[in-house]
Amino acid sequence: MSAMSRLSFKEQVLRVREDAIISSVNRLLADKGFDLMTVDEVAADVGIAKASLYKHFASKEALAAAAMVRLMQRTQALVEQQAARTDATPLQRLQAMTRWALELQLAGEMPSVPSQNSSLRAELMASQAYLDMLMQVSEVLGGWIHQAQASGDIDPALPSEVVLYTIYARACDPVPAFLKAGGSHSNEQIVDWVMTTCWRGLQR
Amino acid sequence: MSAMSRLSFKEQVLRVREDAIISSVNRLLADKGFDLMTVDEVAADVGIAKASLYKHFASKEALAAAAMVRLMQRTQALVEQQAARTDATPLQRLQAMTRWALELQLAGEMPSVPSQNSSLRAELMASQAYLDMLMQVSEVLGGWIHQAQASGDIDPALPSEVVLYTIYARACDPVPAFLKAGGSHSNEQIVDWVMTTCWRGLQR
DNA sequence: GTCTATAGCCAGATAGAC
DNA sequence: GTCTATCTGGCTATAGAC
Fold first, then answer.
1. Could you say which of A55, B2, B27, B93 has the lowest number of CB atoms within 10 Å?
2. pTM score, two decimals?
């Protein structure tokens, strides 16, 4: 039992350290993107040697993939939270998801990975955990989209794919960053404008 | 006079060659993006040696900047063409610009340069020709936006910045590529859907 | 101005002591 | 598992012959 609790403690320490690594990766990915992020920077930001990083993650791609998995975990958690709301319509749930993504982006916590990078894309598509979560989130959102279309809250003439991809795309839209760079608007105001133009376009 | 015409001829040859280089760069930028594009690939695609490339352009950044300048030239040409239409409203002119950008993207001819890459950004911001064209295009589009807002074709409650940035953002929106990757829709259909969701969101 | 060959550098990844 | 020190490959850029 004492051996078991020592093991558990070691595992906890490991988890905490790896979570710190992922937080650094997440911040750097949001700041510079995958290509410009260097493993040396990650190591410096975490405060450990580069070789130690490679004891935890096999490659730069694995580092980025871990950050994306954590993003999907948080997304899934929010999906479940929204699903538990009894007072909300499907439209309101979808809008809450969009708003959360926009706020995450403006807070500088949305990791950005180019969909073009083939090595990283391969790593993500090889991660069963990531794919499972992505599929599950997409299915739940797809259900809400269908319900919203049936009740007339979303234009039924649009294929649900189009609606889903549009929501996903807003999570990496450059407009919020542009407006923030201008410096003359509050984050709340920016989110409201993007929400308006996005969702007015999907409704009818 | 014969010397002058030989010089002109040489200059023409130079122009044609450099245009071929820029076309290759444009295609590769659209395909892989700036970071993943290598100068070796550009040279191979053009069919000349890498060292010859550097006789025409001083750096990889200069290559990409040249492609962006040509994109701005074509944008400016389309702006002038739209300005000459006597039958069109400002809204219709803006929509024509958006549609053109979407079609360019689906044709695989829209160069994508990460706004994050500092060296490339520095090169672009140092290019007076590029900045001048960008500013002039933005001013004309801004004028059309104000007119469309005054006539109620675009929501007057939106700052014109928001409208302008939203139009620019559609030129690099990932949604068309996602839908095209699905493979079950025609390019025309994809453009129509994105146009609908984009412009319905800006109108009112 | 075009080529071949190479310099120089940077970043990802690893060896090996502790 | 953490460190320092190093290897390695690939990419930008250039030298120098023609």
1. B2
2. 0.95
Q: Could you tell me the two tokens for B21?
A: 């280089």
- Domains assigned to chain A: 60-202 (1.10.357.10)
Q: Token digits for B116? A: 């994050």
Q: Which amino acid is it at A185?
A: H
d(CA A21, CA A52): 11
> What's the CA B67/C1' C17 distance, rounded, in angstroms?
52
Chain B residues with CB inside 8 Å of A185's CB?
A: 159
Q: Residue B24 and residue B110: Cα distance in Å, rounded?
A: 12
Per-residue tens of pLDDT for chain A, all 204 residues? 555 566 688 888 899 999 999 999 999 999 999 999 999 999 999 999 999 999 999 999 999 999 999 999 999 999 999 999 999 999 999 999 999 999 999 999 999 999 888 999 999 999 999 999 999 999 999 999 999 999 999 999 999 999 999 999 999 999 999 999 999 999 999 999 999 999 999 998
In chain A, the N- to C-terminal Cα span, in Å, equals 62
